[in-house]
Amino acid sequence: MPDRKDLLAIVDRHLDSDRFRQQHWEGSFYDYLDLVAAKPHIARNAFQRVYDMILSYGSRRYSYLKQDYVHYTFFDDPIDNGADAIFGLDSAIMRLVDFFKSASRGYGTERRILLLHGPVGSSKSTLARLLKKGLEHYSQTDEGALYTFSWNAPDETGNTTRFTCPMHEEPLKLIPIRARREILAKINADLPDDKHVRVEGDLDPFCRRMFEELLIRYNGDWRKVVEHVSVRRIILSEKDRRGIGTFQPKDEKNQDSPELTGDINYRKIAQYGSDSDPRAFNFDGELNIANRGICEFIEILKLDVAFLYDLLGATQEHTIKPKKFAQTDIDEVILGHTNEPEYKKLQSNELMEAFRDRTIKIDVPYNTRLSDEIKIYNKDFNKERVRGIHIAPHTIEVAAMWAVLTRLDEPKKAGLSLLQKLKLYDGKMIPGFTEDSVRELREEASREGMQGISPRYIQDKISNALVSEQAQQDRCINPFMALNELENGLDHHSLLTDEELKKVYKELLSVVRDEYEDTLKAEVQRAISADEDAIARLAANYIENVRAYTQREKVRNKYTGRDEEPDERLMRSIEEKIDIPESRKDDFRQEIMNYIGALALDGKKFEYHSNARLLKALELKLFEDARDTIKLKNVVSGVIDDETQAKLDVVKQRLIKFFGYNETSATDVLNYVASIFARGDAKQSR
Phi and psi (nearest 5°) for 64? Predict the structure, then answer.
């Protein structure tokens, strides 16, 4: 058993006293001026700080469908090891970062409400949570440090009382506005335009009162006033209500503006003699405490109309109106998010035109790329999080595939299926389609991703499959279990009331099942034909016959020692597997020999697996030959001799080794594919 010293040593190892002292630095106003002169960025406004925070994690550029994109590492959530990582929304995130870039330079977007708009479960809340969490963490770093101040106010008896600035104001606001402009101009003279420090507005009512009283006490001597100021570093924290605020609308009848802008502290009225004395006021509304940071409005369009008008001043003028006080300046990002039904109401309400005009809407859609959607569920259902239950290969994939299919519009191009469209979006190649034509498909379906099944529904149904009786018994779930859960849940989907749409979604489940069946057959085929020695022998035999055919020579029979004509039947049995018609066989064979010749000129040896088409043909041929010897159909009947069982065990081990199945799921796959062949379905997988 560990003793107390061992346990306390663990605590000590995680505490950094030097860092604690840095994060709780305190000094005079003059000390702070020295800091600003050395590091002007500590006086950034909220928009500049958020933008710099995002960039501090780095980015990478890439191209998709001949368009350039930027992926910002911050949205991978490196702070929490990817707990809130966002996948596949780089286009929306780029617009979001552009908003902050423009706002940080004072181009006008800093005077707008940032509205994230999209269907339920499209990561709007996650984006907001990431920005808040990121800002908290950034304020703990040297690069993201920011400061506020307290008043050391003397009374008539000579005692000093410390009053903390209730809205965490920037200390440079203590400098009179005219002098401040000149000081900032001097500081900014050596900075690039995009790094200029801008400190605007006046002190909050409480600090104005303290400032004015001290100014009177010292007959206008500003330097004497700031000697009563202690500047200190602050760490933004939503839990401590410093610089991060969140407001969620309640019942419209119970909404009250003090929730945003603070309220009178009636217990202090007797002490200070007036309800208009700022010392008798609690500056603790969400817009007050979020000063210097971010204020998130959940379901912002469900706010009472009076609240929305408060937000107009908060965004356009950067001011709020606490009860009994004049307009008060604020410096914060106002971020809201809403679903489509609420946004449609806003569009139809003519009285809200001013609000719409002061809003920058960023659409946050669902993923329409399969690989990105899979990443969402792999984050939640991986081996580290799901212990003791095996998730068979393709379980996550088929659920994600169905989710994406529900979000896509039927292609207008004749002969193109919805499944093929999904594959094109995911970067797969289909004959007749180029990057330009895929981009045209995207452009003609501008609403894709704004409707369909939410990732939350998929997560819920995979969870149901994991706790089902069958999963607990087998310690395994497979794609069919997931698809069954997805289908059964549609009849009870709280947001899906259109029966016709339910029917369409169920038809898409059939599409996914068919695709999965093809995948299973392909994997079993590869497992059966995965005998590398057998493939190598077949490849050598084929190449020898092709060489003789193209050179118009004979082939030496190893067993009889006689020269014979090239084995046309063997060559065609392989070529037909990849749809080489009789009329094209000569061209194909010559291509193979030219390829071998080109390698030889470079001093390289031909390997059968270096030609993807030939490898596929060889595998299919070997599968066809081996299938009858393994007697896969007999698996269904349960009558299997020892020799066949031994061969099946080899195939099963290959499924486990090459594709990630376990014993149970590999057995299930073999049984299922065997039942397909037993039904006489000998169709080869695509």
Answer: -140, 125
What's residue 225's pLDDT?
96
What digits encode the pLDDT tens for the residues 486-509? 999 998 887 777 889 999 999 999
Output phi, psi for 109, to 5 deg. Answer: -70, -15
End-to-end distance of the chain based on CA atoms, in angstroms?
Answer: 60
| Range in 183-187, 334-338, 639-643 with the lowest mean pLDDT | 639-643
Strand order in the sheet with 229-234: 26-28, 229-234, 146-154, 160-164
Alpha carbon distance 79, 132 (integer Å): 12
Per-residue confidence band for 679, with pLDDT thresholds at 50, 70 and 90: low
The model carries a pTM of 0.86
Domain at 23-365: CATH code: 3.40.50.300
**For 586-630, what is each residue's pLDDT tens digit?**
998 998 898 888 888 888 888 877 777 888 888 888 887 776 666
Residue 639 pLDDT grade (very low, low, confident, very high; cuts 50, 70, 90): low
Extract the tokens encoding 261: 């802008």
Res 637: pLDDT: 55
Residue with tokens 């499944």: 419
pLDDT for 660: 93
User: What pLDDT score does 635 carry?
Assistant: 60
Distance of CA 18 to the CA centre of its chain: 35
The tokens of 93 are what?
């995130």
Contact 619, 629 (CB under 8 A): no
Q: What pLDDT, on a 0 to 100 scale, did the predictor assign at position 471?
A: 94
- Within 349-414, residue ranges assigned H as helices are 353-357, 370-380, 395-407
pLDDT in tens, 174-217: 999 999 999 999 999 989 988 999 999 999 999 999 999 999 99
Give the Cα separation of 361 and 673 in Å (integer): 50
DSSP letter at 111 equals G
Residue type, 257: S
- Phi first, then psi: give them for residue 85, nearest 5 degrees: -60, 145
Q: How far apart, in Å, are the Cα atoms of 182 and each of 189, 231, 304, 637?
A: 11, 22, 42, 91
360 sits in which H/E element: strand 359-363
- 61 Cβ partners below 8 Å, 6+ apart? 68, 69, 70, 71
- Above 70 in pLDDT, residue 685? no
Residue partners of 576: CB distance under 8 A and separation at least 6: none
**How far apart (Å, rounded) are the C-alpha atoms in residues 262 and 287?**
8
Q: Return d(Cα 512, Cα 501) in angstroms, integer.
A: 17
* Ranges of each domain in the chain: 23-365, 370-523, 529-629
Contact 116, 127 (CB under 8 A): yes
- Rounded to 10°, the helix 663-678/642-659 angle is 120
At 167, the amino acid letter reads M
* Residues with Cβ within 8 Å of residue 25, at least 6 apart in sequence: 232, 233
Structure tokens at 106: 């004072």
Alpha helices in 446-584 (DSSP H): 455-466, 469-474, 479-490, 499-528, 532-550, 568-575
> Taking the alpha carbons of 564, 566, 572, 575 in that order, is the dihedral positive or negative?
positive
CA dist., res. 64 & res. 668, Å (int):
38
> Are the C-beta atoms of 657 and 498 separated by less than 8 Å?
no
Q: What is the pLDDT of residue 475?
A: 95
What are the residues facing 291 on neighbouring strands?
Answer: none
